[in-house]
């Protein structure tokens, strides 16, 4: 358990703890862009630089493990100048798109630019221009806004185990690529969107559905399957416009494609709200009493002609446990068949 002193405060931390994590334990803020607490460190953005006594140059705190007796200073005029220059360099090749960007108000890069008061571009030069838009159904990939922090690549590999994207090319041409630069074709879990610190990755379904400040957030449980991930519904004008998950929940903010992007059914006009009976090729709205009488009559007919196993029941993972328990009880005890199933697919 080495002891480290950060900005004059000393703490004992487990061996292997990075300077950044030790600073977090002391509630000392250090700006970061490529760091994510659930991913292995990358050390790519250089924003988290600190001074360590005895080392003649600033070092990245997210990749430097604490050693016994280390003395760290997280903020000096020189360090802040360097951080500001790093940000200016990143922003020198970034579209001035905050006014219409989906992430404005919820963007780490924008927040840092505000904090460091960056208004002008001192490093005007060549810009990356990518006109092609990815044709996949869920994720908008606006790579001109990509700062090459690598979080999306790491989450796809280390958390999702898919490896659908990686760094391609070299130097100025570096870019997050799919194989052969085809349209993204993956699990569409959206973990990459969740960890992206800029507007480079956003949900296509979210586009122009409202700024975060106008959105009410409600924490709930995903209704899709029995795993029961914690989700946060983002609601605007009584409509769910986005689903996210918080990092401090048991599912650590990770979701699958159904939980993250499969919410359109909630406000679908195709949703059945009243019972319908088809007569002469047309659906007619009827009362629940009439519908249940009709169902009982038809099920009795089938059972007496072909036996109970000619009947099967499909329930839904979007019902509660209690509802599904009652449904299987109805199938087994009242109808007499074990043909009960459900489908949780999107
Ligand atoms: S990604 Fe962030 S900084 Fe870039 S345009 Fe969007 S809101 Fe602005
Ligand atoms: S959506 Fe999921 S599987 Fe697809 S690239 Fe992103 S993290 Fe990988
Ligand atoms: S797409 Fe987002 S998460 Fe991926 S490297 Fe670019 S900025 Fe980082
Ligand atoms: S956060 Fe440490 S280098 Fe990016």
The overall pLDDT, averaged over residues, is 94
Distinct helical segment count: 8
What is the string of SSEs from the N terminus onward?
EEHEEEHHEHEEHEEEEHEEHEHE
Query: Helical content, roughly?
Result: 10-25%
What is the general shape? elongated
Q: Structural class from helices and strands?
A: alpha+beta
Query: Under the CATH scheme, which class of the domain at 3-75?
Result: Alpha Beta
The distinct bound ligands, ions and cofactors come out as:
iron/sulfur cluster, FE2/S2 (inorganic) cluster
Low-confidence parts lasting 5 or more residues at pLDDT below 50?
none
Share of residues in strands: 15-25%
The CATH topology annotation of the domain at 3-75 reads as Ubiquitin-like (UB roll)
Strand tally: 16
Q: Report the CATH architecture of the domain at 3-75.
A: Roll
Radius of gyration: 27 Å
Your description of this structure?
This protein is 24% helix and 19% strand. It has 346 residues and is α+β, with helices and mostly antiparallel strands. The mean pLDDT is 94. Among the domains are: 3-75, Ubiquitin-like (UB roll); 209-271, Single Sheet (N-terminal domain of TfIIb), CATH 2.20.25; 276-343, no CATH class. The chain has helices at residues 19-25, 77-91, 108-115, 151-159, 191-195, 257-261, 288-306, 321-335; strands spanning 3-6, 9-12, 49-52, 59-60, 70-73, 139-141, 166-168, 175-177, 201-203, 216-221, 230-236, 239-244, 276-279, 282-285, 313-316, 340-343. It binds iron/sulfur cluster (3 copies) and FE2/S2 (inorganic) cluster (FES).
